């Protein structure tokens, strides 16, 4: 099971590391998006959102690949994956496959690291 967890960690971390680095310093050609998704992307780019989100991608990707502080990386990526899924469901449903795979990797890793998350589901501490 440890090998499967390590493989899934790397498979989840690599795309976020690569695309996060691309958001910070573009090196991959990205075709322009059409319609509302293109408008949203242009607004986010113009106002620096991609730089911030790209930085979070890189941090989480490195943590996942290295295997240190994995629960923190999963907490960082949780809301990001929700936004990615909502973006693709509402604005680009024909490209939904990859976000679903990444979300399944995230859910699997949360299950694998469940003891780290157990404490946040306690109703009362004392």
Structure explained in plain terms:
75% of the residues lie in helices and 0% in strands. With 126 residues, it is an all-alpha fold. It has one domain (2-26, 33-121). Helix 1 packs antiparallel against helix 3 (49-66), helix 3 (49-66) packs across helix 4 (70-90) and helix 4 packs antiparallel against helix 5 (97-112). The longest helix is centred in the N-terminal third of the chain and has 23 residues, at 2-24. The radius of gyration is 16 Å and the shape is globular. The chain starts with a helix and ends in a 9-residue tail after the last helix. The mean pLDDT is 92.
In terms of quaternary structure, the protein is single chain
Q: Which range best describes the helical content: under 10%, 10-25%, 25-40%, 40-55%, 55-70% or over 70%? A: over 70%
Largest sheet: none
* Cα-to-Cα separation, first versus last residue: 35 Å
Structural class: mainly alpha
What gyration radius follows from the Cα positions, in whole Å? 16 Å
General form: globular
Average pLDDT rating: 92
The number of domains is: 1
Summarize the helix and strand pattern as letters.
HHHHHH
Ranges where pLDDT stays below 50 over 5 or more residues in a row are none
Quickly count the helices: 6
Instruction: Estimate what percentage of residues fall within beta strands.
Output: under 5%
Number of DSSP-assigned strands: 0
């Amino acid at each position: 099971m440890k090998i499967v967890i390590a493989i899934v960690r790397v498979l989840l971390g690599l795309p976020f590391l690569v695309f996060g680095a691309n958001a910070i310093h573009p090196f991959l050609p990205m075709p322009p998006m059409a319609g509302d998704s293109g408008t949203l992307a242009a607004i986010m780019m113009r106002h620096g959102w991609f730089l911030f989100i790209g930085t979070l991608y890189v941090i989480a990707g490195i943590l996942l690949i290295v295997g240190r502080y994995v629960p923190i990386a999963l907490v960082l990526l949780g809301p990001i994956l929700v936004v990615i899924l909502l973006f693709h469901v509402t604005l680009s449903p024909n490209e939904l496959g990859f976000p679903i795979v990444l979300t399944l990797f995230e859910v699997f890793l949360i299950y694998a690291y469940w003891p780290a998350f157990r404490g946040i589901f306690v109703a009362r501490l004392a």
